[in-house]
Amino acid sequence: MQASRFEYKHRFLIHAVIYLLAFQAPWNNFLNLTDESTWLLAANMLWRHHLLSFMDAANLILVFALVFMALAAWLRTWGSAYVGTSVVHSDSMHGDAMFADGPYRRTRNPLYLGTLLHTIGLAILMTPSGAIFAIALIWIFQFRLALAEEPFLTTRFSRISTTKPPCRAFCLRCVRVSWPPASSRIGCRPCSASYISSPRFWSSLSSVGISMRSFCVEEF
Q1: 3 state SS of 186
Q2: What does the DSSP assignment read for 34-69?
Q3: What is the domain extent for residue 102?
Q4: Which of 35-44, 85-94, 118-127, 167-176 is the least confident region?
Q5: Cβ neighbours of 79 (radius 10 Å)
Q6: Within 13 Å of residue 122, how many CA atoms lie on the same side as its CB?
């Protein structure tokens, strides 16, 4: 089931509410669930099974989380460099051009994939129930957003070519939220921004590092 117009317009607010609930996990008290973070519980489990020392396990989990967060920041910045920040933050759908280059050669929705990776990396700071809640709802919401965009884009670009709609060909070659091997080009518009030198990329990584460091000080 695709997202409604209201959900698409207020998608950033919905993301914020999901993250807030996941971090607070108010249901833990009623269900007698632990309030310990997934990070600490996973590190403790590895330590109890004599696989790693507690600190080594905690550092290993942190590295995996940072990798996910860095990939998310890189992917979202790369995708944003193609469509433009005005389109990314718009409360309505746009169909001025169809991209099939850069990250869009491999996945239809690199921005949504980046959000999912970001959530997975962030989940170690949540309780286990909060982590499951966040990952499940964010994945479902990204999928519903993608389903809402596809009919709009298919209709818009079908007007350009009635014999072989480019949007339909693109959908057949690229999955919604995944990263398969690169497919052949369908036609693209080149990117006009350098994503790796974008301030957004480095500010995202900096905020991730500061957040993780603050949590480390509090927990350890």
Answers
A1: coil
A2: --S-HHHHHHHHHHHTTSS-HHHHHHHHHHHHHHHH
A3: 5-219
A4: 167-176
A5: 23
A6: 24
CA dihedral (140, 142, 143, 146) in degrees, to 10, reads 160
Residue with tokens 């080009």: 185
CB-based contacts of 139, cutoff 8 Å, min separation 6: 116, 119, 177
User: Chain centroid to CA 40: how far?
Assistant: 23
Contacts of 54 (CB under 8 A, 6+ apart): 43, 44, 47
**pLDDT tens sequence across 57-99:** 999 999 999 999 999 999 988 888 877 777 777 776 766 666 6
Q: Which tokens go with 149?
A: 């965009």
Cα 189–Cα 186–Cα 98 angle in degrees, nearest 5: 45
Q: How many domains does the chain have?
A: 1
Residue 37 pLDDT: 94
How many angstroms separate the Cα of 38 from the Cα of each of 118, 120, 123, 124, 142? 15, 11, 7, 5, 23
Residue 116: Cβ within 10 Å count: 21
CB–CB of 7/140 below 8 Å? Answer: no
* Spatial distance between the Cα atoms of 148 and 112, rounded to a whole number of angstroms: 13
Which one-letter DSSP state was computed for residue 175? B
Whether 26 contacts 130, CB under 8 Å: no
Cα 49 → chain centroid: 32
